[in-house]
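Practice problem. Given the sequence and the SMILES for magnesium ion, write out the predicted structure.
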Amino acid sequence: MTAVQTETVTRDRLLEMQRRMCEIRAFEDIVKDWFSRALVRGSTHLYQGQEAVAVGITSALRRGDTTTCTYRGHGTVLAQGAPLDRSFGEILGKANGLCGGKGGSMHLADLSVGALGSFAIVGAHLPISVGAAWASQLLGTGAVSATFFGDGAANIGTFHEALNLAGVWKLPVLFVLENNLYGEYSPITTTTANPELVDRAAAYGMPGLRVDGNDVVAVFDAAASAVARGRSGQGPTLIEAMTYRQSGHSRSDPAKYRPAGELEGWLARDPLTVAERRLHDMGVETAELDRLRADAEAKVRRAAERALSWPEPRPEDRFEDLWVH
Amino acid sequence: MTTTMTAAATVDINYRKVIARALADELATDTKVVFLGEDVGAAGGAFKSTEGLKQRFGDRVRDTPISEQAIIGAAVGAALMGLRPVAEIMFADFAGVCFDQLVNTLAKYRYTSGGQARVPVTVRMANGAGAGFGPQHSQPAENWFLNIPGLKIVVPGTVEDMYGLLRSAIRDDNPVLVFEHKNLFALKGRVPAEPDDAYLVPIGEADVVRTGQDVTIVATQQMRHRALEAADQLAATGVTAEVIDPRTLVPFDLKTVVQSLRKTSRLVVVQEGPPDGGWGATLIASISSHHFELLDAPPTLIASDPVPVPYSTPMEDAWLPDASRIAAVVLQLVRF
Ligand SMILES: Cc1ncc(C[n+]2csc(CCOP(=O)(O)OP(=O)(O)O)c2C)c(N)n1
Ligand SMILES: [Mg+2]
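Answer key:
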C-alpha cells in the first residue's frame, strides 16, 4: 500500500485521534443498543471498523474545509466535530437533534463545523463536494472538500461525473473511497469488472492513493498530501482506504455471506487496536490508553443520557424548515 | 403590466435574448451569482440564449461536461458555500437524467438539515412542444416536479415575465426551477435599457392578462397566448373571457383565480402536457373542493393527449390544444 509520508504524527496528535475514534466507537455501541430496543426508527448503518478513515482524513482538515458522507456517516460527522449529544438527539428523532429530527441516522449534518451532510442516495453527495470545492476556487478561500463514499458507489454515475468535473476544473476535492469489500450484501468482485478501484483516478486526471484504512496514521498521511495538493491549486485526489465493515450492512443484516475467518482477520486489525499499538511504540502506557478509552466512553454515555432526556418535536414542527421565508 | 410602471428608457428584445439579459443583470448586480451548464459559455448556449456572458463575466460562467447530475450537485454545493448558482439543463427533458439531484438533493436539503442550509439555486431548462424536436426534446416537464415540496416553479410566458421572473428566481433564497418555453423564443417584448429592479416580477403572483365576465381561462406559456387568441374569437360571439397567467406554479396564486371566479363562475384550465397529475388537474380539484359554490358549470381541463410528443407537424399540432378548441369548450360551458 502506498502512502506518502508528508508529516510526522506526533504522540499528542495520535492520542487525540485515538480519543476521537474511541468516542465514535462508544457512540455506535449505544446506537446499536438503542436500535435493538426500538429507540431508533427505520434503519441504521454502523461505521464500526472504519473509524480510522474518518478520523484520519478529518484530522488533516482545517476550519472552513467541508465534508459530505453517506448514510454510514455517524463517524464522519462526529470526527468533524459535531456535538455528541445533538448527534444522538437526531438519531433519536428529538427536537434538539442536529436536524431537528427531520433527517435521522442517515442524514446527520452540522454545517457549523463543515459537515455538509450525510446522504442516503448512493453517490449523490460527490457532486455536492465538487460544488463546495468550486466555490472555494472561485472565492479563493483555500478550503478543500472531502467526500466519503463506499466501493459500491464507485459504480454509480455520479462517481464518474464528479471525478471528471473535479479533474477538469482542478478542484480541491479529496475523494475518499472507503473500500469495505461489500456493497450491501454483494462482495465487490461480483459487482465490479475491475476491482482495482484506485486505478480509476488516472481516468480522471488525478493521483490515486491506496492506503491501509485501518491505520489512522496512514490515512492521515495520504489526506495531508491530498490536502496540500488541493490547497495549492493542483486539483483533486482519489484516496482508496482499504477497510472493513465489522457489522452487517444495516442493523437488520446478520452478514451470513461473509466467508469464515474474514471478520476475525479484520477484527485483529481493528483500527483502535492498530492505533494503540502505535501509541505503545511511542511510549504511551497501557494504563493511559485504558483511561483514554474509559473517559471517552463516559463522555459519550453522558451525552446519550442528555439526548434521551430531550423532548420530541411537536407534530406541527413538520411544517418548518422547508422554505427560506 | 410592469413596463408601464416606470418612465425609464426601454429596449425591444425577444424571449430568447432576454434570458441572457436577465442573467447579465444579476451577474452584474451580485458577484455571488455564478452560472454553469453545457455549452453555455464559449458557445453562448445551445439556443444562443446565453451569448456574451462568458466574455463579460469570465470564470463565473462555466462550461461543463455532459454531466447533468454533477451540474445540479455542484450548484447545490456551491450554494451551500454562499454562492448563488444558476444551472442550465439544456432541454427540460434531460431533467430525467438528474432527477435525483433535483428531487432528493436540491429540494430536500434545507428540510433534511432542519433548516441549517440555504440552497439558492436556480435551474433553467428549455421546455415544451411545438418546435418539432420529437418525443425526447419537447416535453413540458414542469408537472414532473409538482409533487416535490421544496421546489419553486416558474413558467414565464412573455418577455417581461421571463426577465422579471428569472431575476427574482436568482434572488430567491430557495431552489427555483425556471422553465423557458422553446416555442416562445421569437416572442417580442420590452425591458428596461438599464438594469432596473422595478421590472422584477414577484414569484407567486398571477397576471390577469385580460379581463372578462363570462369565463376564467387559466393558462401558461404557449397556452396563455392561445387562450388570448381564443378570447378574441369568443369576443366576436359576445362572450368575454378573463385570461389569467399564473406565471408561477409553486407557490400557486389561487387567490387571483378565486377572485376572478366570483365574477365569471366558469373555469377552463388549459395545460400543455398530458392531463393526469398536473397543475391543471390540481387547480380544478382545489377549486372544486373549496370553492364549489362559485361554479355555474363543471370546471374543465383542456390538456394535451396522454401520448408522447410526436414529431411530425400534423400530429404535434393536434397534440397541442389550440385556440378554436379552447373557444369551443368555453361556449359549451357558457351554454351549460
Ligand atoms: C441510488 C441508490 N441505490 C441503492 C441504494 C440502496 N443501498 C444503500 S447502501 C447500498 C450499498 C452501498 O455500498 P457501498 O457504496 O460500498 O457503501 P457501504 O454501505 O459499504 O459503506 C445500497 C445498494 C441506495 N441507497 N441508493
Ligand atoms: Mg462498501
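Check your answer against the key. The longest strand of chain B covers residues 84-91.
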